[in-house]
Amino acid sequence: MGDLAKIFKAYDVRGVVPDELDEPTAEAVGAAFVEVTGAESVVVAHDMRESSVPLAEAFIRGARSRGADVVHAGLGSTDLLYYASGSLGLPGVMFTASHNPARYNGMKMCRAGAVPIGGDTGLTEIRDRAAELAGISGTPSGSLIEKDLLSGYAHHLRTLVDLSGIRPLKVVVDAGNGMGGYTVPAVFEGLPIELTPLYFELDGNFPNHEANPIEPQNLVDLQRAVLAGGADLGLAFDGDADRCWVIDERGESVSPSVITALVAARELAKYPGATIIHNLITSLGVPEIVREHGGVPVRTRVGHSFIKAEMARTGAVFGGEHSAHYYFRDFWFADSGLLAAMHVLAALGEQDRPLSEVVSAYSRYHASGEINSAVADQGEALRRVREAFADRGDFDELDGLTVTGPGWWFNLRASNTEPLLRLNAEAAGDGKMTAIKDEVLAIVGKVSE
């Protein structure tokens, strides 16, 4: 039995296999999931990691031992699992460790309709009940149905963004040996897209590079391929394909804040006056552009549970995070990297300009990107930064410390899982952004010395 206290995080389950997460653990969690949620039926999917099939099968045994019927979707991306949960009206569990290295695995859980289960919405109770059920195996009484949902998922995405009439586009996709290699071909089939695939072979050992597009070194192969092939754009997905990163025709990264603003403008054209959610480290340009397009911007903390909860509360049509997670009301308020990518393809393919020109209208500020600093005494570092900027801007502590001055802002917040402080800074000019960033990092650095 694994270490439940260690592997149950704020939003999901994640740990090293088999030291922290093993089959008996997955079986106990399966039984606990059914008991806590009261589910009569459950849908389960898994990614391409070597440990995913045995862990999913163990979870299914546990769920069936408590009388639940199980729909086993087999291979899938995390957003395919959300599609399954939403379209079938069932609680769901996805076995994946997203972008983490091969030795990790985990579970993302949701209630029927893809409603997320987090620490304060059932995950803690599932953990505690699983601990009580450790080592207890029951006889499976629930049924098991294997169901291929890939074609239904692909069809559903294509009903949300119609790409059939776009001009022909040359697109390079780097799946990082993750689940994008499974879902992208199904969604793009028959569309006016000339697809150049990179690392579409499903391989949970990630032999080419980490399936984490937020790290610049993992985008190098995609950037080279876009330039070499004269492609219109490049797309990079993480391991479970719920995040998507965009590269323009020049091989340059497009900020997720810019993508958030672009998709928001498209959704507001469809739903005039609607609410758009953005987290507090997206660009100042996002709420500005939302207002200019007649929408209502709402700012939230970082993290998918906060985004989804606020979307449900406000009825928002779209939400974006600077980590390249994008959420859609028409997709059960859940996130889908591929659906966001389809909006970009539509915006590009509906006119003749290159992507760099299309996105320039949504890029207004200079950003530092997220910078991590290892700091043992995070409270002291935050106190010193607060003191240094006491008379220079407005303070906000929605999530960490946000300081906003004339034409600039920064946010400094603690990681939920590591002894790190994360800094994001932005300003109208590159020089000002660099000065603010360097000043905050210097203060933080003195505390960590």
UniProtKB/TrEMBL annotation:
Its cofactor is Mg(2+). It comes from the Bacteria. Residues 370-441 form the Alpha-D-phosphohexomutase C-terminal domain. Keywords: Isomerase, Magnesium, Metal-binding, Phosphoprotein. Residues 6-131, 152-251, 261-365 form the Alpha-D-phosphohexomutase alpha/beta/alpha domain. SUPFAM superfamilies: Phosphoglucomutase, C-terminal domain, Phosphoglucomutase, first 3 domains. It holds the Pfam family PGM_PMM_I. The keyword Nucleus does not apply. The keyword Magnesium applies. Belongs to the phosphohexose mutase family. This is Phosphomannomutase/phosphoglucomutase. It comes from Nonomuraea rosea. The lineage of its organism: Bacteria, Bacillati, Actinomycetota, Actinomycetes, Streptosporangiales.
